[in-house]
Amino acid sequence: MTASFISRIAVVLVVAGFAAGCANTIRGMGQDTAGAVTATQQAGQNIDRAARY
Asked: Burial code of 26-41, b = ≥16 C-beta within 10 A, e = fewer?
């Protein structure tokens, strides 16, 4: 194997690692957003219940 071939393989592996990291970050942001929406809805329901008394 030549050095050029090995360096190309290394670059591909590094890029794949970065892509996997980005995918995990985006997935985590989606979960955080869903949690924020749920918390906002619950807060609105609490305010609605408090206003009824």
From this structure: eeeeeeeeeeeeeeee
The tens digit of pLDDT for each residue in 1-36 reads: 788 899 999 999 999 988 888 888 988 999 999 999
**DSSP letters spanning 2-45:** -HHHHHHHHHHHHHHHHHHHHHHHHHHHHHHHHHHHHHHHHHHH
Alpha carbon distance 27, 17 (integer Å): 15
Residues in the chain: 53
